[in-house]
Design brief:
Layout: H1 7-11, H2 13-29, H3 43-57, H4 69-74, H5 81-97, H6 102-113, H7 116-119
Helix pairs in contact: 2-3, 2-5, 5-6
The structure holds protoporphyrin IX containing FE.
Protoporphyrin IX containing FE is lined by residues 34, 37-38, 41, 49-50, 53, 66-67, 69, 72-73, 76, 79, 83-84, 87-88, 112, 115, 119.
């Protein structure tokens, strides 16, 4: 069922998404399986892009101007399901810390799942 209030609004809008994105990348960078991918990445820009992407993907105002996800990840070597699952796991754990309900976390997980083949270039 589609709810009248977007997932973006339920999570707390712009300020919440910004906070979630910062904490999420802190977890990603602390994860030895994932951190090396971000060695040469400007994390302030990355956080801004990811927050804009999540805002759009969760039904908020569309202001994402980054690359499509297939192009953005195409140059990253040896990306597999374990990396994707790790990233989504950190996102879910962050949302839990922010008090997001299990049902809403599952919905975010479904949105993430919908981009798996693009991110992994399949
Ligand atoms: C649900 C899964 C994911 C989403 C929604 C996502 C989203 C994004 C977005 C929006 C960007 C910015 C694109 C741009 O620069 O224009 C990006 C870049 C990037 N992502 Fe992801 N990503 C996901 C999974 C992953 C995974 C699994 C990894 C590897 C561990 C990863 C590593 C990177 C890196 C290194 C960049 C920067 C690339 C560059 O600046 O050249 N991402 N991602």
């Amino acid at each position: 069922m589609t709810s009248a209030v977007s997932l973006y609004e339920r999570l707390g809008g712009s300020a919440a998404i910004q906070g979630v994105t910062e904490v999420f990348y802190r977890k990603v960078l602390a994860d030895g399986l994932l951190s090396a991918y971000f060695d040469d990445v400007d994390m302030d820009r990355q956080i801004a892009k990811q927050a804009a992407f999540l805002t759009m993907a969760l039904g908020g105002p569309a202001s994402y101007t980054g690359r499509d996800l297939r192009t953005a990840h195409a140059g990253l070597g040896h990306l597999g399901d374990e990396h994707f699952d790790g990233v989504v796991g950190h996102l879910a754990a962050t949302l839990r810390e922010f008090g997001v309900s299990d049902a809403d976390i599952a919905e975010v997980g479904a949105v993430a799942e919908s981009v798996r083949s693009d991110v992994l270039n399949r």
